[in-house]
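Hi there, hope your week has been kind to you so far. No rush at all, and the record is pasted right below.
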Amino acid sequence: MPVFEYECDACIDEYNSDISSLVEKINKSNASKIMKKNPKFYYIEVYDDKKDRLAFALGEKGKRNVRKFRYKVKNNKSLYLELKNFRFSELIYNKEEEKNLVCPSCSKGDKVRRVYSTFKAIFDDKNKRAPHPGDELQYHLDYKKMKDEEMASSWVGYDHLNQYFND
């Protein structure tokens, strides 16, 4: 079953504009205004690296389905954000179904694009992949033997030989 991941460009643009306005004027009152305006900001934390202490924190930390970002900003401060996830996955069977996608965060479908997926389902035969921890020992040994035979039988080409001769 083909599972694809998508990102909402409208959500990303909204986040970027709010983060830019927060960085321009990084204080607690501006951060609270941004959190009220955009409820997709779950947590904002500003840490003062020079004084080695927390300047302020707003919101609830550790919610589910969040994207976490950490930025170094001016005046030796670090900005830590937890935002509502703008990436979502959908099960698509036909190309026509992809046109009807809607972002679950903002309910817009006009700026949704497919991105490279960070997960991949492996449905191949075990013999076509490298062994992983947890596989039986014999599979590790057989795989090493197979790779050694491949390397021994490979033809030595000119590119390999040229490295030993000085021109």
Summary: Residues 127-153 form one domain. Helices lie at 9-24, 28-37, 137-153, 158-162. The mean pLDDT is 78. The two ends are 55 Å apart (CA to CA).
